[in-house]
Each structure stands twice: as C-alpha cells, then as structure tokens.
Amino acid sequence: MLKVTVLLENRKAKHVDGLTCRLGLSLLIDDGETRILFDTGPDAAFIDNAKKMGVSLDDVDWVVLSHGHYDHCGGLKHLQKLPKVLCHPGVYDHKYAGVKFLSRFIAIKKISTQLPSVQKSFHFTKEPYEISNKFIWSGEIASVKTYGYIKKERVVPDTLNDEGALIYKSDKGLIIFTGCGHKGVKNIIEHCRRLTGVKSIYAIVGGMHLRHAMPWRLISLRSYIKDVNPKQILTCHCTGKWGKLWMSSAEEINTGDVIALL
User: Fold this and answer.
1) Is residue 152's pLDDT more than 90?
2) Taking residues 220-240, what's their average pLDDT?
C-alpha cells in the first residue's frame, strides 16, 4: 500500500477540525519501507497539523523539495531534526515575481524564502536520483516555460529548472507527484515515461498549475489525459476548481485527508 497524508494544502477536508490551511503543499508519502515528506509548505503549519493528526515526522527518511518557491519549501527551517534532503541546487536561487519594463526589472514580490544553511544531509542534483527501488526523483524536466525572475549577477527569467517530480514505480504503473506542475502536466508525464521506460500511468497527485489556464490549453490536456487514462487523478494546491473542471475523473484532496493508493 502507498499511503499519502495531506499535511498541508490550500483547503481543509470537511471531516477534520482544528487543522490549519495555507497557500502551499506538504504531503507525507509512505510505502511501508520509505517515508518521504514531499514539500513543507510556507511555514510550520504542516508540523502542527501532523501533531494534531497523530502523525510522527521523527522517522521520515527523506524530505524532497519540488522547487524553490516559498509555499513549497518555507517550512524546511522549522524541522528540528533534518533527515536527508533532496532537491535541485536552484532551490536556493533568489526568485521574484515581477515585470520587465524596457531594460529595467521591477520586482513585485519575492517568491523564494530563506532556507537552512546547507548541511551534510543535503543532496543536490540536477539529474534523476533513485531514492529507493520504488521512488525516483525526476531531475530536471526540460521545457521553455518561465515563471518569474531570478536575481543573480543579473536578473534573468526563471525557467524553473529546479522543479521536478517524485515518481513511484508501482506494479500497476507510475504514480507521479507534482508540487505545482509549472512544467506542464503532459511534459511531466512524458519525462517520467522516458526516464523509467514505463508507459502506464496509475495516478497523478498534486498541484497542476491550471487555475488560470486558457480553455484551448485545457481542451488539449483533457484529450491527452483521456489517452493516458490514469486510474486516479488527485488534484490540489494550484490546480484550482477551473482546472479540475476539465478533468472529469479528478478528485480534490485537502488538508487532513489520508489516501490509500494501490
């Protein structure tokens, strides 16, 4: 069994009381051998929610950060004992939402956050990484999409090279976990297929960045998802009700939900 506990999400499940919602994402994923904390939300809310749900984070094997936006990795500094942390080195980039006017960059909002000092337990990689015989980190997913800007020696558009997906190889097909899905659902799925050599997709879980997507993009995605035919689509975070509307088989997951996959 693969169990997914939603420690933090934009919405709260109706059947639970006393939990905190935040703009962000944190999933505890457990297959009975490996426990992975996938993203940590923007602050310590995921830790408080875990305590209220009676979920221990003491024996987490890995923290996997999907990308460097504050609502996915801001909670990392609140973990008292850091397990092994897996992420792209670009997670530490200074990221901003903003606009370019002529040759001048105007920052509107910082969308990265202060992260803990790099420790021995951190593993940075741009390449795919085998966490266990079932879990794989996707590494960089190629695309031409940009989202915001990075400030280094100069300001450049952020192509989100640091964004990846967590893959679980089940006997029934791939289960793909996405943080925000800026790279595009189709692009992510095809990357995971090429990487693993597995064509069958059992489930897609996470944020899919569709809340403001144009109808023609969603029509194309709906056709693609129909061809892929995953058994489960579990949407949350930045998918939005608008994005979910175009995937008739999709179900929303919320803070406090515990889902048994497989």
Assistant:
1) no
2) 95
